[in-house]
Structure formats: C-alpha cells, structure tokens
Amino acid sequence: MIEDVRTELMPVAGGVGTAMPEGGEGYSSGSVWRLILAVFLENRLAIVGLGLIVFMVLFCFVGPLVYHTQQVFNNPNIANLPPSAHHPLGTDPVGYDMLGRLMLGGQSSLEIGFAAALIAVGIGVIWGATAGLAGGVVDAVMMRIVDALLAIPFLFALILLGAIFTTSIPELIIVIGLVAWLVPARLVRGETLSLRVREYVQAVRVMGGGSGRVLLRHIIPNTVGTIVVNATFQVADAIIFVATLSFLGIGVPPPATNWGGELSNGLSYFYDGYWWLIYPAGIAIVLTVVAFNFVGDAMRDALEVRLQQR
Amino acid sequence: MFGYMIRRVGQAIIVLIGVTIITFILLHLLPGNPVRAILGTRASAIDIKQLTDQLGLNKPLYIQYFVWVSNLLHGNLGFSYKLDQPVASLLAQRIPKTLFLVGASLILAVLLAVPLGMLQAVRRNKPDDYVLTGLSFIFYSMPSFWLGILLIVVFSATLGWFPSEAPQDQFSVFSQLNGMVLPVATLTLVTLAFFSRYTRSSMLEQTIQDYVRTARAKGVSRRAVLFRHVLRNALIPVITLLGLSLGGILSGAVVTEDVFNYPGMGLLFYQAAVSDDFPVLLGVTVVVALATVLGNLIADILYAVTDPRIRYVS
C-alpha cells in the first residue's frame, strides 16, 4: 500500500531520454527500442508476469464461454458445497459456482483496473505536460494543486470520496482515476521540463509550430515509456484499491462482484471451514497484481538501458 | 542550507493551505444540510434559522472558510454528532495508538529491509536475488487485509500463538504486546517489501557510479567499497523514503486497524466513513494530510543535510 511513491521515487539511472549508451556507440532510434525489448525479454520475471496477465485475461473473459455456469438465480439447495468434479471450486452461500464466480469477479476487477489506469494516466499526462510546457505561474499553480492533493493519502481520499458518492462501477472507476492521476502528472511534468528545451522542440518552435503541436506531436510521444510503465503499476494498484474498498464495505454493491468482494463475503464463513470461498479469490488478486508489477518493473529496467550496459 | 530550508518550509505551508481549501470544498460537496442533520427532520423553521446563524452557515463562503481555518488553528476540528464528542478529543485518544503501530512497523521494516536489499543487490540476478525479489513482489502485491487475514489464519486460528484481535483499552498496548504482534507484522511485511526493493535499486544505482570504479582501481576491496562507499550513498534516498512513504503506511494502517479491530485513528476514520460521520472524516483527513506534509518536509530537509548536492540542484 505504498503505491504513492513507487514509480516516482525509484532511483533512475538515466531516464528514457538518456537511453543511449555512453561512450559514443551510435544506435538508431529503432534499435534502441529493439534493445529495450531485448532487455525486457531477458528478464524472466517479466515473461512470467506477461504470461500470467494473458492467462488471467483469457480465464476471465474467454473462460465463461467454455465453462458455463449460472450466476443469476440463487439456489440454496447447492449452497456452500466443497469442491467436487461438478463444481471444481465449490459453491458459495447462495449456490453460485465459485469457479464461474471467480471469472465474473475477475472481469470487473480487470475492467475497473484498466479503466481507472486509463483515466488516471490520461488526466496525468495532459495535466503534467501542460504544466511543464507552460512553466512559470501556470506550472507553479498546477503543481501546487497536485502537491496538496497528494498530501491526502490515497486510501483516505478513496474512502472519503467513496463515502460522498454512493458507488456504482462507473463511479468507482472515476473515483480511483481521480485519486490516482497525481503521480503520472508529476512524472510527465518532470520529463516535459527536460524535453521542452531539447533542440528538436526549439526547431519546431522556430518553424512556427504552436504549443499544441509541440505538446501532442513531440512531448507526449516522448514520455510514452514513462507513461506505459506507470499505467502498468496503476492497473495493479487499482485492482488492490477495488479489493480493499470491497473488503471495507465501500466497494461495489451486489449483484456486481469482484475478487475483493468475493473474498470479503467468504470471510464471514471462514470459521465454518469453507476455505474455498476465500483462497481462490485471494490468490487471483495476488497473482494478477504480482504479474502487473513484474511487467511494470521489467519495463522500467529495460528503459534504463544504461544500467544494463555495464 | 538555511535558504533552502526557508524555501521548503514556505512550500509546505502553501501545500497545507491548499489542503485546507480542498477539504473545505469537500465539506461543501457533502450531501445533505448539516443543520437538518443535527436537528432532525421535525425541527421548526425558527430552530433551523437559529442554528444556521449560530454555525455561521449563512455567511459568504470565504468568510466560512476563514472561520473554519481559524478554528483549525485553535485546535477545534469540529464536533461529531454521531459520537457526541469533539473531533479533537477523539483524535487525541486515537492518534497515540496509530503512532505506536506505524512507528513500530516502520522501524522494524527499515531494520530488516536494508540488509535484505543489500543482499539482493550484491547477488543481483542470482537465484537468491530471484527468490527474495519474488517474495517481496508477492508481499508487495498483497492487499494488506488479505495478508492480515492469512497471518490470523496461520498464527491465531491454526497455531494459536497470538490473539487475532489487538488490545482494546487505553493503556493495555504495552502490557499486551502479544496482541500487537500480528498487526505490526502485517504492516511491517507490506512496508518491508517496498523498502527492500528500493534499497536494492538504490544500491544498484550506486554500483555503476564512477567513484566505485575509481575505488576498485585504487585497490580497495569489494567489501570495503560496498560498506564504506556504496551503502552510505545508497542509504541517503532510503532515509528520505521514510518520510515520503508515510502516507502509504497510514493508508496501510487503516486496513490493518480494521482487520485487527485496533482502536486507532484508521479505524476511527473507517467507522466514520461507514456511518457518514463527516466531521470526523474531515478532521482525520486534515490531521493525516498535515502528517504527510510534515513527513515530506522532514524527508527533504534530511536529504539536503545528508546530500549537499541537492541544495544546488533546486
């Protein structure tokens, strides 16, 4: 739960902009990306993570097409059955098949994760790039707003907003996105500050390119590495946030479900020995979040090619 | 140095003013009319008018803001009608407990994380680094409530070593340390995973610096370079991380306190959220934000003290 500072503070041994190796060996821009890809693929944990993500997406979205369960009507006759050939992960207190439930819960966990990450990164990029490019008073005001919002720890902000807005899935996505955009905003602003004084940006200016063009065509595309890395972490964080809010009872109300909700529903039955109600959902959360963190971490390492050049 | 500190304190004050503005806006986004909430639905129009005047809610917003801020500065954080107590006295009971939980976890996490991170950096990309990296990723990726539950399952329900509930009454925290083991362990493990990961990359960043090559070329042993040069430089960002991660750790404390029913500030906040006790929610938010800003400020100043280069950069 220390998401606040991870992407921002990890020591960086040369950012995306300095991806060129020292010592004057020239790489064309195409081969820098190939080099980055090679470094990424060298990292075994990254491959494991990527595999896990693909597996989870297939499991949640393609799984229900293969493994049909009914998740609409309660059936008390088959409530709380232990795992068997008929129900590989047992059934829950209202008679839903848990394997099918896990797929359904995963769908919304992943959807919320991706959507919230997209919103957070979207706002963050526009805010950060604008502030960095504008500079001066505009920059100072915009970044002080970010500082002030960052002073309220994420979970506190989420609980506060969750208490104000009654949560549905779209609201939950917006709330998470509105809390999580601060870190990408800072990262992108930092990169913009170094990018805007580059010669090619000056060249665009000289040739009459306006701020909008500089921003959209030159600055934002150059921050794409940072953005993608941060977005990957954002997905992981959003999945944890949703699970935590559901555990705290501020998440999505039924009939919508997600892994965190399943886990916390199962807890009340845990001392009855119904372990299948909590472990699968818990393991699914951890595996998915680990996978996104593996991939994000490997991408960041790969972008720091200098460290790998030793 | 002095100039840098003044500038940094000034920034912190601006951020704090920003926080109060944001909190004040939230206060006014809240659904419902506070006067109605206090007096109930059957209050007469005269009573409503009287209390509205008394609370100053008929004044312009900016005057209400200044009144609210001046109350804050006098330690008046509002009144919880749900708990029938001033928010400040509720916080006074709860904050020491949270400080104890967070403080103990932070200290343990740092004491364990630095050697672990060092080991990982030295053994980079060897099997033990992979195992430790994998483990720290798993702890890091675990929602804290799930980690707490697993610890309860193993150490409380199965082995019966520690109670699953934290000590409840005011002065029992030290006399019943047994009950603090699992909450502190939960918060420590989550924090530890992050800190050791950070120490590892901070060490790795230092090992590629020129001064390391120079020292090695002069014939300094690997071990001496590691402890005398690399570690000392790598620890600088780790020190500052302590202050900067305060917000995240306080977030973790909310969940941990809820799992173990530990009556700290986090549990107070959570219960306030569930019962729509907005004065408490906002009071805790202001206090937590103040703690985070102070944490950042101290971290930055420590950074400047330990690493003189930073003063020239900014």
Description:
The complex is a heterodimer of chains A (310) and B (314). Chain A has 14 helices and no strands. By secondary structure, chain A is mainly alpha-helical. Chain A has a single domain (43-308), classed as MetI-like (MetI-like fold, Orthogonal Bundle), CATH 1.10.3720.10. In chain A, 51% of the residues are buried. Chain B is mainly alpha-helical. Chain B contains 15 helices and two strands. Chain B has helices spanning 2-29, 34-39, 45-55, 61-73, 87-122, 127-140, 144-158, 172-175, 177-207, 210-217, 222-244, 246-259, 265-274, 278-306, 309-313; strands at residues 79-80, 85-86. A two-stranded antiparallel sheet of chain B has the order 1-2. In chain B, a hairpin with a 4-residue loop joins strand 1 and strand 2 (85-86). In chain B, helix 5 packs across helix 9, helix 7 (144-158) crosses helix 12 (246-259) and helix 12 (246-259) crosses helix 13. Chain B is flat. The model of chain B has no long low-confidence stretch (mean pLDDT 80). The chains are: A mainly alpha (310), B mainly alpha (314). Chains A and B meet through helix 1, helix 5, helix 6, helix 11 and helix 12 of A and helix 1, helix 6, helix 7, helix 9 and helix 11 of B.
Which key phrases capture this entry?
heterodimer, A: 310 residues, mainly alpha, MetI-like fold, 14 helices, 70% helix, disordered N terminus, disordered C terminus, B: 314 residues, two-stranded antiparallel ribbon, 2 strands, 79% helix, flat
In short, what is this structure?
Chain A has 14 helices and no strands. With 310 residues, chain A is mostly helical. Chain B is built from 15 helices and 2 strands.
